[in-house]
Amino acid sequence: MKDLLKKKEKAFPYLMCLPALLLFTLFITLPFINGLWISFHRWDGFSPMKWIGLKNYRFVLTDEIFWKAISNTFIYAFFVTLIKNIIGLGLAIILAKKIRFRTAFRTAVYMPVTFSYVVVGILWVWILNPNFGLLNHFLRALGLDFLIRGWLSEPRYALASVIGVDIWKWIGFHMVLYLAGIQAIPKQLYEAAEIDGASAWQRFCHVTIPQLNSTIIVNVLLSITGAFVANYDIVKMMTDGGPFHSTEVSLTYIVSTAFRYSSVGKANAMSMILFLLVLVFGLLQLKIMTREDVYE
């Protein structure tokens, strides 16, 4: 009887994990394996598949637009991650203090997070319109006509404009995470540092940052994941990859290849290459950020 109870106790955690494992297998593992299989075929999504081996991969590896999309994706991820975390942490430090209208400021910063990508895309396409957009109108009213640009129509500004909109949408989310981390730091640490004669900058470097170690890791990983996965929506809504593929990211190009050009096999080959690149990048990032000496 005791042996039976022990076996049930040991099996219980595995049984609890079983539904999640089944869902993961059904919606992640099996589609991944199926996508890998399709990547070795020529297929338009309707007619029978034809085995062509590594031809899709050879085509993708020599496709300049695909590598431009990959480059844009990593540029997008780098700047979005960096700026979101710097500004999010800065706002959290400011709004953690007792200032007037603190709740109103917190609400205003967080509000864009609640907007859908459709709303954000339509709003900012209107604001950034070169002819009647609010931004150029504001610059014109200030006499800064030399700063007026076609923010979404000029290739050298389009990607930066989309990155700025993504930061604007999600900065409140990261601010809230940093705010929660800051409020959990014991005040005694700041008091002890102040007694020792530490300046505000020294308290920030030697108290705030080390105490926010886990929060920073979570924010950075969420930023990177969001930049690689969620950039499709904002790019699709605002520029659809143009002009001249200047805002083309890996996901928009993969979707276009699959559904606009009916090359499902090539699209799956692109997805596999992107998966490997993101996997390597993610593992390196995680290894660097979880080193014990990073925040010492």
In short:
This protein has helices spanning 2-38, 55-61, 64-95, 102-110, 117-127, 134-141, 155-183, 187-195, 200-211, 213-229, 231-238, 250-260, 264-289; strands at residues 41-42, 50-51. By secondary structure, the chain is an all-alpha fold. α2 packs across α13, α5 packs across α11 (231-238) and α12 runs antiparallel to α13 (264-289).
Task: Explain the overall architecture.
The chain has 296 residues and is mainly alpha-helical. The protein has 2 domains: 1-27, no CATH class; 39-289, MetI-like fold (Orthogonal Bundle), CATH 1.10.3720. Helices cover 73% and strands 1% of the residues. It has 13 helices and 2 strands, in the order H-E-E-H-H-H-H-H-H-H-H-H-H-H-H. A two-stranded antiparallel ribbon has the order 1-2. The chain is flat and about 75 Å long. The mean pLDDT is 89.
Main attributes?
single chain; 296 residues; 2 domains; two-stranded antiparallel ribbon; 13 helices; 2 strands
* Poorly predicted residue ranges: none
CATH superfamily of the largest domain: MetI-like
N- to C-terminal distance? 52 Å
Question: Count of helical segments?
Answer: 13
Number of domains: 2
Q: Topology, pairings included?
A:
Elements: H1 2-38, E1 41-42, E2 50-51, H2 55-61, H3 64-95, H4 102-110, H5 117-127, H6 134-141, H7 155-183, H8 187-195, H9 200-211, H10 213-229, H11 231-238, H12 250-260, H13 264-289
Antiparallel strand pairs: 1-2
